[in-house]
Specification:
This protein has 622 residues and is an alpha/beta fold. Helix content is 45%, strand content 11%. Strands 1, 4, 5, 6, 9, 10, 11, 12 and 13 form a 9-stranded mixed β-sheet that branches. Strands 14-15-16-17-18 form a 5-stranded antiparallel β-sheet, covered by helices on one side. A two-stranded antiparallel sheet has the order 2-3. A hairpin with a 2-residue loop joins strand 7 and strand 8 (370-371). Helix 2 (12-31) packs parallel to helix 4 (63-88), helix 3 (38-58) packs antiparallel against helix 4 (63-88) and helix 11 (178-185) packs across helix 12 (187-200). The longest helix is centred in the N-terminal third of the chain and has 26 residues, at 63-88. The radius of gyration is 27 Å and the shape is globular. Mean pLDDT is 89; it is low at 1-9.
């Protein structure tokens, strides 16, 4: 036994391959539903062997140091994959790692995702750092680094390993489901394949001349009536758009021990027009992506936040520009710095006349990444009142932030007492944060009414993205959620956000249950304001006049997934082995989608990206 152990220690290629196999098991346990299995050995180890064979071939001195560097690099990849999955539910690639600078700015949110056993994958590195620089250990490591593997053996082992990697990659490269693809290929093979595929397989752009409103509507199956209902019902009114941080629809009407979680938003939903079958279209940029989609009615890009994409160099067709052309002043309010998520370029691309950020709100009553929602609303209403006093109508977007992940409120902000079983859980923190956000919203609503803005403005409210990712929840939290909502929490609950419309006309129905998404807000409010859209391409539909909908998902779910009138469809390796989840109760349904819808969803995403990419750059970018 001792001799076998010494043989392993004297051959770093065996030692480090074994160590990394244990780390891959941790990543597989977190990411894949089947967890670690024997296939992991045949998909992950060949990659290790190729890397370590290169070290054996090329290095004669400091060999152990190179092994440690390779070990650290691969460890960081595994750690990034499991951390990213816990929030986004997809496999991180180099695209996500390019946004690593954002992680430092949302540190608390990131750290909250770490489970102690994740840190296990760094134990060996800490061990080596503690011991390898002591003189007696340095000598031992140098001695072990002198053992050389014969060149013929290295060539043979490397050839077999490369063949196994290619065997794992090629038969699975056509799969559309990134999770299944990574499991079949192996995580590291998938990372390398993605890098190679992106550099050699560019998305083919559709000629912009082919991208017309008629073409979009035909693919979606949308029909525009000759005389739309409610057209111009709020003509000449101000428009106020309120984006609610991490607000999900299951909160509406929910009580715990007789306490309403969101009493003010409940009243808002019950006394205005409430769309209860409405879904987030945000991508990797989450909140800023929601801003982009709502203001443009285009989809977010594939592998990056909209605010980090080439779109930001363009003059994007948008709601601010549309309303400006119809006599409106446009502005947006957010308590964070305008530099965060590159909002400065976002606001230039979509054409806001003015923005209010941290430089206006200060950092008083700090929660999450800026001043609290109470400060946001208290300082925003007087600015809106000044605009309302002018002859010119205005469009104002107001973005709340206090209920941001990981939902850590100061105790003095608690407005309700949660049962003990909720305390110390992500779900409990989420509920507490949303209850406070609702309290601040209640103050905002009162100020809008007393200032006269309520009667002078078309006001819409919606959640920006999911707050409780199903991938992050523990079993106890899943049980609590099932107890609260009456069925197993799933995809349809996670992406379902409320959309509430206050129309001063008072002519709209109280509840609309047809499927919609953030991409539909622009055409819906345009119709109410009586602003024509004939000359502006948009991918959304007027939800007051639509009868069916098809909304592709760009992120958080496998490529090709979408929501339609009855279900959320999740892609399998291709359409045939995908799954449909009922919008009613998240149950798996046999039917619910068609292959034609699957193909149409992909076509819509390509059309949106193609159109934006072929727009001319803004003058300030040329």
């Amino acid at each position: 036994m001792k001799k076998s152990l010494n043989n392993i220690l004297n051959r770093p290629i065996l030692l480090f391959s074994f160590v990394l196999l244990l780390k891959s098991a941790v990543a597989w346990f977190v990411v894949f539903s089947d967890g670690p299995n024997w296939s992991m050995v045949f998909t992950e180890i060949p990659f290790f062997i190729i890397v370590f064979s290169l070290i054996e071939w090329l290095s004669s001195k400091r060999k152990i140091l190179y092994y440690m560097i390779a070990n650290l690099f691969i460890t960081v990849i595994y750690f990034s994959v499991l951390m990213y999955y816990k929030y986004y539910g997809v496999i991180a690639t180099y695209h996500a790692l390019q946004q690593a600078d954002k992680v430092t700015k949302v540190g608390e949110s990131t750290y909250s995702l770490i489970t102690p056993y994740y840190l296990f994958i760094f134990v060996d590195i800490v061990f080596f750092l503690l011991f390898m620089f002591r003189p007696k250990y340095i000598a031992k490591w140098k001695e072990r680094g002198t053992y050389r593997i014969s060149r013929p053996v290295l060539i043979g082992v490397s050839t077999v390993s490369l063949a196994l990697c290619l065997f794992n990659i090629w038969p699975n490269h056509a799969s559309m489901n990134e999770i299944k693809k990574a499991e079949s290929m192996g995580i590291l093979n998938y990372e390398v394949y993605t890098l190679f595929a992106d550099s050699t397989e560019k998305e083919e752009l559709i000629d912009s001349k082919e991208i017309t409103q008629q073409a979009v509507d035909t693919i979606k199956g949308a029909e525009t009536p000759q005389s739309p209902k409610y057209a111009g019902a709020d003509k000449g009114k101000n428009l106020i758009v309120v984006q609610m941080e991490s607000f999900q629809n299951f909160l509406i009407g929910l009580t715990i021990d007789g306490q309403e979680i969101t009493p003010n938003i409940n009243k808002l939903a019950h006394s205005n027009t409430y769309f209860n079958n409405f879904y987030s279209n945000a991508g990797q940029g989450t909140t800023s992506d929601a801003e982009f989609v709502v203001n443009s009615s285009f989809y977010v890009p594939k592998n990056e936040p909209a605010t980090s994409s080439p779109y930001m160099k363009k003059s994007v067709p948008s709601l601010p520009k549309l309303l400006s052309a119809n006599g409106y002043f446009t502005t947006t309010f957010h308590t964070n710095s305008v530099e965060f998520w590159n909002r400065k370029d976002l606001y230039k691309a979509i054409g806001f006349d003015k923005y209010y950020d941290q430089s206006f709100f200060g950092d008083d009553d700090h929660i999450a990444f800026g001043s609290s929602d109470e400060v946001l609303f208290a300082k925003t209403v007087p600015e809106l009142a000044v605009l309302d006093a002018k002859d010119q109508p205005f469009y104002a977007m107001v973005i709340s932030m206090s209920a941001h992940h990981p939902f850590r409120l100061p105790e003095e902000k608690f407005k309700m007492k949660l049962p003990e079983r909720y305390q110390g859980t992500l779900l409990g923190d989420y509920i507490q944060a949303q209850n406070y956000a609702d309290y601040a919203m209640g103050q905002f609503l009162e100020e809008l009414k007393t200032s006269g803005l309520w009667d002078d403005s078309l006001i819409v409210f919606y959640g920006d993205h999911q707050g409780v990712p199903m991938y992050t929840l523990g079993n106890d939290e899943k049980d609590l959620l099932q107890e609260m909502i009456g069925h197993e929490y799933g995809y349809t609950d996670m992406f379902n956000i409320p959309f509430i419309v206050h129309s001063p006309s008072g002519s709209l129905p109280s509840v609309i249950d047809r499927t919609g998404g953030q991409i539909d807000i622009l055409p819906t409010v345009s119709n109410l304001l009586g602003v024509p859209l004939q000359n502006q391409l948009h991918f959304g539909e007027d939800l007051l006049n639509s009868t069916s909908n098809l909304i592709p998902f760009r992120h958080f779910l496998p490529t090709g997934s979408f929501v339609n009138n009855t279900s959320i469809y999740l892609t399998g390796n291709d359409y045939e082995d995908g799954s449909n989840y009922s919008l009613n109760d998240n149950s798996v349904t046999k039917d619910g989608s068609t292959e034609a819808q699957f193909e149409a969803a992909e076509r819509l995403l390509n059309m949106s990206n193609s159109y934006l990419m072929q727009l001319p750059d803004r003058p300030d970018q040329q």
